[in-house]
Amino acid sequence: MTPRVTLAIATRVLAQLRRDHRTVAMLVVLPALLVTLMWWMFQDSPTTFDRVGGPLLAVFPAIIMFIVTSVATLRERSTGTLARLFTLPMGKLDFLLGYALAFAAIAVVQAAFVVSIALYALDLDIQGPAWQLAAVAVLDGILGTALGLFASAFAATEFQAVQLMPAVMIPQLLLCGLLVPRDHLPTLLHTLSDALPLSYAVDAVQKVAQGNNPLPQTLLVLTFTTTALTLGATTLERRTP
């Protein structure tokens, strides 16, 4: 890995995103709109929104980042851009880390916006500090990015990349504790949830909401993120077969 090359890739991706206003709007605004929709649904039951609102700050950014990064990476391969990039002195890890760094910058803006809306416009009740909630939300967005980069290696077309979202993210959404507390899941499903990264992303947000230390959960999220990027570097193809 070469830091100069990684930064060059990140700069290139950010320049592309700056010209794509719709994608930027989806990345930054859509999570806040979805959280607002959930608040509206539970307007007559604010305690329910307080229970699910925190986990949503982990789930929505991760899912949206997964979709965008998996499709964007696949497009680089299908258009031949990736093959041309690899004629330069650039490694696979440089490419993936550059993408991750660019979307991490987007995740900071995304988290600041959605957390501000949730706390100050929707009155989401949390016991921990707002900065800690935003930090965890950023990390969860980066997790979605890493999973999207890894999953893109198994798709040959952009349509297949989109199909990976329900295959990879929906099971995690169902088992992460958002709908049913993980301790209440059947034994087999609880064991499966322990192996899914989104479970720990939600756990970290819930720890902040309860005023507890989320460090163990955030370290696990970081581990999953690093593992996904490493595996992505080993499976990344230079072009679509």
Automatic annotation (TrEMBL):
Subcellular localization: Cell membrane
A single Gene Ontology CC term: ATP-binding cassette (ABC) transporter complex
Coiled-coil regions listed: none
Lineage: Bacteria, Bacillati, Actinomycetota, Actinomycetes, Propionibacteriales
InterPro entries recorded: ABC-2_transporter_component (IPR051449), ABC2_TM (IPR013525), ABC2_TM_bact-type (IPR047817), ABC_2_transport (IPR000412)
GO MF, one example: ABC-type transporter activity
Protein keywords: Antibiotic resistance, Cell membrane, Membrane, Transmembrane, Transmembrane helix, Transport
Transmembrane segments: 24-42, 54-74, 95-121, 133-154
PROSITE patterns given in the database record: ABC_TM2
Membrane topology: Multi-pass membrane protein
Gene Ontology BP annotations: response to antibiotic
Name of the protein in its database record: Transport permease protein
Organism: Kribbella sandramycini
Ranges for domain ABC transmembrane type-2: 18-239
Membership in a protein family: Belongs to the ABC-2 integral membrane protein family.
